[in-house]
């Protein structure tokens, strides 16, 4: 007989300061061992739904819930605070938000301490989870020195060390390089089969998951279920053909740029030039130095080896909320001083931010935060832009809007650098690819040269873009 893990009956949820609900009339059941994908537009309430399942909401945000939620056959509100989290583990969108301790080992130990695990069992459980996740070499490493992708893997390990019955995942592969992402899905498949885990994942890029999921619950932009059906593999998003000219003018040049911290070399000397109107994708395995390179160019580290042909660059980091300075999305967008209100309104409309313009930028979804930060930098009209993982948390509609905005800036002669693991987006926008591995620059290549070299891609944990025939088909 089915063993029901979660049941929602006509559930609605509203944050105390909002006039309208984030989720409306949600009803479904999830049985033990199911693999369920939750999809929908950015800001539709997908993460909120996960937080209702793990009981983070409503108590932690004073949210208002209508309807009935049952967990493991009991009313969800009958559990004491934290009680259900012995059985339901969660990996959040932003792994930094769940870390409390400095090193990987201490973070795992902290998780076990909160479960009252006997000290005599801790060492073996930590060793075991690090072995099965391939992170043994990071046991004593400081978490804050790791790349975003490696932090995501550490966060997943902290969830698994609990031996949970249910694993809730909020876009778990968005910060992983393509090869590691594929390996993660294969590994999770085996783990689920072995331990009969119930896996529920919020995900935009379902094409990366193949046939992993059995079922898909689709959420609409107003927080309702539009479909709850058997999962069908998703096709790759296809972008329009880009046609623009790279100008014969240097935008910036880097000569012997390197980064050292506390005696450790994070980035070996790097040298390259970027032209006006050029889109350069920076790619490589997790931890290869991509974000370090961007920070070095923009001045977070010393940048004496970089020469700019124009004003200083604009930079949107992986954690976009670090840029926020104001209390509303509209004020954040206007902070850059875009001269025309009409231009600002058009930009907000293009980024689908108009409907949340009065909300606090810290309170919106992960994908919306990223669009606010990108929009604020676009409004500032910097001639050189650096975007670190701009596609993370974005649905197909948002990706197409972002593609068109970047294309428009390139047409104006601006230079755009994009750090991304999304090879489909990279294939759509890139003129050139800078490849990094182990803190060293392999080279700067024409994009088409990279897509046609399987060995070069494999050496940098990249997979050929599924849409790489787009250009050829467009000219056929």
Characterize the structure shown.
- One of its GO terms (cellular component) is ATP-binding cassette (ABC) transporter complex.
- GO terms for molecular function: ATP binding; ATP hydrolysis activity; ATPase-coupled transmembrane transporter activity.
- By secondary structure, this protein is an alpha/beta fold.
- It has 2 domains: 227 residues, P-loop containing nucleotide triphosphate hydrolases (Rossmann fold); 211 residues, P-loop containing nucleotide triphosphate hydrolases (Rossmann fold).
- 30% of the residues lie in helices and 25% in strands.
- It contains 14 helices and 19 strands.
- A 6-stranded mixed β-sheet has the order 6-7-8-3-9-10, with helices on both faces. It has a 6-stranded mixed β-sheet with strand order 15-16-17-13-18-19, with helices on both faces. A 4-stranded antiparallel β-sheet has the order 2-1-4-5, with helices on one face.
- The chain is globular.
- The protein starts with a strand and ends with a helix.
- The C terminus is likely disordered.
Give the secondary structure arrangement, pairings included.
Layout: E1 4-14, E2 23-31, E3 35-39, H1 46-53, E4 64-71, E5 74-75, E6 88-91, H2 104-114, H3 119-133, H4 148-160, E7 166-170, H5 178-195, E8 198-202, E9 215-219, E10 225-230, E11 250-261, E12 264-275, E13 279-283, H6 290-298, E14 306-308, E15 314-316, H7 329-334, H8 341-350, H9 366-379, E16 384-388, H10 396-411, E17 415-419, H11 423-429, E18 432-437, E19 440-446, H12 447-451, H13 454-459, H14 470-475
Parallel strand pairs: 3-8, 3-9, 6-7, 7-8, 13-17, 13-18, 15-16, 16-17
Antiparallel strand pairs: 1-2, 1-4, 4-5, 9-10, 11-12, 11-14, 18-19
């Amino acid at each position: 007989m089915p063993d029901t893990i979660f049941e929602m009956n006509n559930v609605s949820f509203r944050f105390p300061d909002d006039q309208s609900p984030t989720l409306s009339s949600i009803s479904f059941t999830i049985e033990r061992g199911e693999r369920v994908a939750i999809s929908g537009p950015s800001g539709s309430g997908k993460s909120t739904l996960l937080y209702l399942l793990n009981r983070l909401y409503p108590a932690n945000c004073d949210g208002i819930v209508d309807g009935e939620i049952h967990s493991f056959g009991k009313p969800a509100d009958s559990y004491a605070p934290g009680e259900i989290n012995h059985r339901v583990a969660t990996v959040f969108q932003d792994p930094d938000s769940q870390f409390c301790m400095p090193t990987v080992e201490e973070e795992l130990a902290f998780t076990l301490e909160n479960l009252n695990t006997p000290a005599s069992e801790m060492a073996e459980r930590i060793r075991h989870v690090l072995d099965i996740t391939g992170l043994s070499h990071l046991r004593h490493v400081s978490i804050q020195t790791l790349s975003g992708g490696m932090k995501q893997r550490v966060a997943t390990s902290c969830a698994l060390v609990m031996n949970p019955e249910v694993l809730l995942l909020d876009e778990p592969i968005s910060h992983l390089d393509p090869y590691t992402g594929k390996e993660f899905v294969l590994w999770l498949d085996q783990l689920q089969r072995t331990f009969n885990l119930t896996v529920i994942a919020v995900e935009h890029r379902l094409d990366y998951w193949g046939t992993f999921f059995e079922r898909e619950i689709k959420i609409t932009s107003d927080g309702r279920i539009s479909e709850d059906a058997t999962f069908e593999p998703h096709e790759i998003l296809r972008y329009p053909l880009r046609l623009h000219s790279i100008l014969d003018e240097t935008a910036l040049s880097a000569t012997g740029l390197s980064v050292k911290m506390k005696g450790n070399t994070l980035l070996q000397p790097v040298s390259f030039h970027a032209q006006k109107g050029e889109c350069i994708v920076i790619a490589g395995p997790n931890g290869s130095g991509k974000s370090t390179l961007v920070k070095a160019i923009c001045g977070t580290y010393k940048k004496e080896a970089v020469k700019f042909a124009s004003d200083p660059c604009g930079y949107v980091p992986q954690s976009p909320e670090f840029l926020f300075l104001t209390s509303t999305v509209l004020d954040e967008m206007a902070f850059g001083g875009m001269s025309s209100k009409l231009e600002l309104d058009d930009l907000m409309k293009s980024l689908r931010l108009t409907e949340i313009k009065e909300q606090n930028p810290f309170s919106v979804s992960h994908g919306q935060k990223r669009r606010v930060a990108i929009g604020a930098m676009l409004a500032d009209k910097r001639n050189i832009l650096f975007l670190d993982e701009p596609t993370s948390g974005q649905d197909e509609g948002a990706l197409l809007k972002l593609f068109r905005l970047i294309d428009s800036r390139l047409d104006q002669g601006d230079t755009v650098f994009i750090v991304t693991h999304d090879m489909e987006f990279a294939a759509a926008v890139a003129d050139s690819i800078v490849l990094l591995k182990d803190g060293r620059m392999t080279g700067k290549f024409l994009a088409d040269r990279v897509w046609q070299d399987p060995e070069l891609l494999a050496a940098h944990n990249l997979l050929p873009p599924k849409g790489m025939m787009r250009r050829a088909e467009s000219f056929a």
